[in-house]
């Protein structure tokens, strides 16, 4: 195999031991070739793992251009060290590695079966990306020669950016989840991925779960996203999304006070009013939290006339859980503001547990009497 490399490539860097050098010098001499071994890449003691790894690292690190790795003549642990070096130094730019050759000798010195392990490296890198995404929605940016892998990595990166910026609704509006899932399902048909099937299956299942949330009312979808993000440690993201879920749920609660209130709120939502989503949720959230809204704010009048205030209050006061819901909204408002402003109000010793407590309480509210009517007000 070594003579084939010398005949086909302009620059060949041999990482060698004394025994390997002696043997290969004889081989290339018989082939009528010459090669000067560079002592910089000499492994004087192959049992000195640290030294051997440094030599391999140096050779790979000094390669500024695309390169090919041939493991055909590696012995025992040396090919493994080479693979580790390749992974550690080129994880984010494995496109530099054009091939990883391994030659299987069929007829001595005459016939070889050349196996390219490069695709296995790409598959391992892609599996690494999937595992990161599954665990915490973050990605290591890696370029692939295979365009299908690049398309999937780009799709996952797009999902990551949207999820971690709380742009949840855009996932469904732009069909980002569906297109990424399609890419993943196509790649999963590659038999080489069988050894990484658990990572692929986990990602497919999770994307299908996120897609299934599109059928839920918006506040339930955001509530479930909040729980998911909280479980991954994104407490502030989870809190802000949960706050939006609570705001949208408050619209449902207030809307159910009467058919006329529901009709007028729906009419307002369909209007061209600027910031209508915020005004609507703020109006209903404030009404539940305070039993009234700030009528001095002229924009509030655009949402719903003061003539309906008493009817809404009467409806809420008849609900057995209203006092608890009112307290819940006040506490959540305080928690969100405090967390978003770096504990400027009071120190929250365990924000994860505190948020989980809110999420559990909210789960009980949305399955209670408040939730028996229309779940899709907007």
TL;DR of this structure?
InterPro entries: CRISPR-assoc_prot_DxTHG_CS. The chain contains 17 helices and three strands. The chain has 378 residues and is mainly alpha-helical.
Features:
Rossmann fold; 378 residues; 3-stranded mixed sheet; mainly alpha; 3 domains
How many discrete domains? 3
The chain-level mean pLDDT equals 83
Order of helix and strand elements from N to C terminus: HHHEHEEHHHHHHHHHHHHH
Discrete helix count: 17
Query: In terms of per-residue confidence, which ranges show pLDDT below 50 for 5 or more consecutive residues?
Result: none
> How big a fraction of the residues is strand?
5-15%
Instruction: Give the class from helix and strand content and strand pairing.
Output: mainly alpha
> Distance between the terminal alpha carbons, to the nearest Å?
69 Å
What shape does the CA trace take?
A: elongated
Structure commentary:
The chain folds into three domains: 2-116, Rossmann fold (3-Layer(aba) Sandwich); 122-215, no CATH class; 218-371, no CATH class. It has 17 helices and three strands. The chain has helices at 2-8, 18-30, 49-61, 78-90, 118-136, 147-164, 168-173, 176-187, 197-212, 218-231, 235-255, 259-269, 276-290, 298-303, 309-318, 322-340, 351-366, and strands spanning 67-70, 97-107, 111-116. The protein has a three-stranded mixed β-sheet with strand order 1-2-3, with no helix packed on it. It is elongated. The model has no long low-confidence stretch (mean pLDDT 83).
